Amino acid sequence: MESSTSAELSPFEQLEQAANKDLVDLGEALISFVYFADGNEATVATEEEEYKLPLTVIDSEKNQFSLDTLHFSPESFIIGDTFGLATDQSGEFYYYPLIN
Fold first, then answer.
1. Are 12 and 25 in contact (CB under 8 A)?
2. In angstroms, rounded to a whole number, what is the distance separating the alpha carbons of residues 92 and 100?
3. In 83-99, which positions are buried (b, 16+ CB within 10 angstroms) versus exposed (e)?
4. Alpha-carbon span 86 to 14, nearest angstrom
5. Which residues, 6+ apart, have CB-to-CB distance to 59 below 8 Å?
């Protein structure tokens, strides 16, 4: 009888396994600012740094958008959303859920 090890893995470790890559955990990230008019980009801030990610507007009335370059992310975000952020050696970004 085999036991599943995925229950023992953190969300970051599960992401590394799903991505099949060695990733760097950047920690908790907050979508702190969004530019809808010029450039369509979101500012995602961690404790250490701010990152600019391109966004696609989903619903302008509800201020919902997607971050298409954020791998493994949900379909939509709003300003103030928090999540775990990771990166790989090529500078691509990855989403993982935070533990409540």
1. yes
2. 25
3. bbbbeeeeeebbbbeee
4. 12
5. 76
Tens of pLDDT, residues 43-91: 999 999 999 999 999 998 898 999 999 999 999 999 999 999 999 999 9
Q: Does the pLDDT value for residue 34 go beyond 50?
A: yes
Label residue 1 by pLDDT band (50, 70, 90): very low
DSSP assignments along 57-97, one per residue: EEETTTTEEE-TTEET--S-B-TT-EEEEEE-TT--EEEEP
Residue whose entry in the numeric block shows the structure tokens 């599943």 = 4
